[in-house]
UniProtKB/TrEMBL annotation:
It comes from the Eukaryota. This is F-box/LRR-repeat protein 15/At3g58940/PEG3-like LRR domain-containing protein. SUPFAM superfamilies: RNI-like. Residues 138-268 form the F-box/LRR-repeat protein 15/At3g58940/PEG3-like LRR domain. It comes from Lolium multiflorum. Gene3D superfamilies: Ribonuclease Inhibitor.
Length: 446
């Protein structure tokens, strides 16, 4: 899809009017637009319409032949010059971007003058000024009724924009992205009916109550991708047979309950109570235990891991504390990860790798690639230890891999800090090499 990011002043608007006249000339037999169409436009567009009429009359005059002109027929007195392609026809712009300082006059001309036969496919709207809210809402109402497919809205204001309900009741919308930059914007639609919506991304939004999540689930029967980032969710439940990719990161919530058997990709930051139903189609899962396993409202750990047992690729961040709590209070032996081929473990301290490594190696008979990494956590926190690891300091727990079954890994990758536990890492590396017998081993110190 061709993307035009537009910002034009009065001169560009004049040019657009000329080109519109050219477009009308290229459509033989086209009926003139009804008079009511012009009346809906801003009065300030009078000069542009006058320019269009003048340009149209100019185009009707026969061209003046000149020597060397392309298309000149030898021995003939008339010249038929080739028709130059129109540079930027309004109807040929499938994707329009309106920045926060775009004027009402410009936006009206760009959206309302569009032919019904050349519908806008995608609109990107940036809003940052409360004075522009009324006509920006008008633009949204207009495109929602004209077959828009992709809508990307960025709100960079401290005031609430109050999205019109028609945005959540657009029969043609297939992808919607809503982002806030300064304060969380409240999402509280009265109704949701988006029968074709496949992708929904929310950034820094606040769902007013549990009913919003229910409306989004029931009102989007074709939803395949749901991405929530830095949102306030409260108690959030999603029940869908169509969602294939779910991402909930850096969000605040009390409880999340996911019942989506078709999920193939899961990305989840654990900060509150989490309940995951079975995910038989799961291929890739990324889980960050931001609560350090200390959250008293956390769901049963065994049920949590049961939902992940079908994954082929697992990325687990600060997962040691969750496993410690689970293994200190054993209920069952835990699930078997028979499909698991690739495992990434990110921890603060070297000793934090012992438990996750022992747990998964014993339960993943087909594991081929193992990565133990401290770098990402240090990088995200500017090289400083944070969270529960900061208060624990250096652990006295010793490495014990006597109960770990030997396996043949394809790749073993270690990315470890040159910290106080470097000596412990030397022991870990030697024993890992003996237990996993990797065909390829990569060690990176930082």
């Amino acid at each position: 899809m061709e993307n035009y990011s537009l910002f034009m002043g009065a001169a560009a608007l004049m040019k657009m009017a000329v080109e519109m006249a050219a477009v009308s000339m290229e459509k033989p037999g086209a009926l003139p637009a009804p008079a009511c169409r012009t009346e809906t436009l801003s009065p300030d567009l009078g000069f542009a319409m006058a320019a269009a009429r003048k340009a149209k009359r100019a185009l009707q005059r026969p061209p003046t032949p000149h020597p060397g002109a392309p298309g000149r027929a030898a021995g003939r007195g008339t010249v038929q010059p080739p028709v130059a392609p129109v540079a930027a026809r309004v109807g040929d712009m499938p994707h329009v971007t309106l920045l926060g300082h775009a004027s009402e006059r410009f936006g009206d001309s760009l959206l309302l003058l569009r032919d019904d036969d050349n519908k806008l496919r995608a609109l990107t709207l940036h809003s940052a000024n409360t004075d522009h809210f009324p006509h920006q809402r008008s633009w949204l109402r207009h495109v929602a009724s004209r077959g828009i497919r992709v809508l990307d809205i960025t709100l960079g204001t401290a005031y609430h924009f109050n999205l019109p309900d028609c945005v959540f009741n657009c029969a043609t919308l297939e992808e919607m992205i809503m982002s806030a930059l300064t304060v969380r914007q409240v999402v509280a639609p009265r109704t949701v009916c988006l029968p074709r919506l496949k992708k929904l991304h929310l950034r820094y939004m606040e769902l007013s109550d549990q009913s919003v999540a229910d409306k989004l689930t029931s009102g989007c029967p074709s939803l395949e991708e749901l991405d929530l980032s830095r949102c306030s969710l409260g108690v959030f439940r999603i029940s869908s047979d169509t969602v294939k990719a779910l991402s909930v990161t850096a969000c605040d919530y009390l409880e999340i309950h996911v019942s989506a058997p078709s999920i193939a990709s899961l990305k989840l930051s654990v900060v509150g109570r989490v309940k995951l139903d079975a995910m038989p189609s799961l291929l890739h899962a990324w889980v960050n235990d931001c609560g350090g396993g200390l959250n008293p409202h956390a769901a049963d750990r065994h049920d949590f891991l049961d939902a992940l047992c079908n994954a082929q690729h697992l990325e687990l961040i600060t997962f040691d504390s969750l496993l410690k709590d689970m293994m200190d209070k054993p209920v069952t032996e835990g699930p078997t990860f028979r499909k698991l081929k690739s495992l990434y473990l990110g921890e603060w301290l070297v000793v934090d790798f012992y438990r996750p490594f022992a747990y998964f190696v014993n339960r993943a008979p087909n594991l081929a690639k193992l990565s133990l990494d401290q770098w990402k956590l240090y990088e995200e926190n500017n090289g400083k230890i944070s969270g529960p690891a900061y208060f624990r300091g250096k652990s006295t727990e010793k490495l014990n891999l006597s109960s770990v079954r030997s396996s043949d890994l394809e790749i073993l990758r270690l990315r470890i800090s040159k910290g106080d536990d470097a000596g412990e890492f030397s022991t870990l590396r030697r024993m890992l090499k003996e237990k996993t017998k990797p065909k390829e081993m990569e060690v990176v110190w930082f």
